[in-house]
Amino acid sequence: MRVKALEHIGIAVKSLKEAVEIYQALGLSLSSTEEVPSERVRVATFPVEGTRIELLEPTSEDSAIAKFLQKRGEGIHHLAFEVEDIERFCEELQAAGLRLVYEAPRAGEGGSRVNFIHPSSVRGVLIEIREGR
Ligand code: CO
Description:
Helix content is 22%, strand content 37%. With 133 residues, it is of the alpha+beta class. Strands 2-3-4-1-5-8-7-6 form an eight-stranded mixed beta sheet. The model has no long low-confidence stretch (mean pLDDT 95). It binds cobalt (II) ion. Cobalt (II) ion binds at residues 8, 10, 54, 78, 80, 128.
């Protein structure tokens, strides 16, 4: 079991439009904007050498991102690690005593399949586990 890459860093924002302008001002290029209904978010992606920045705006009040913004405000929300076999990886995490957010992987952006390790198992950091780029 091994992580292949830090696939992206997810950042919670109130307004995608305003946040996109900030990252463009940093000289990064927006590669795509996509709505992910399963997570009730809209996602803007900026490739950066070897990884990506993902800006996340909630599309509904009951979105996990909306709750995060209410509780902690804007900022880094999660790290996403790419793995080869998500089912097996998740089984091994559970065997190691780590708590997963979902019973089974769900559809993420870009055709990926994702699950999350609960922050209570990772010293306050939410970690996305994903198969597929
Ligand atoms: Co993510």
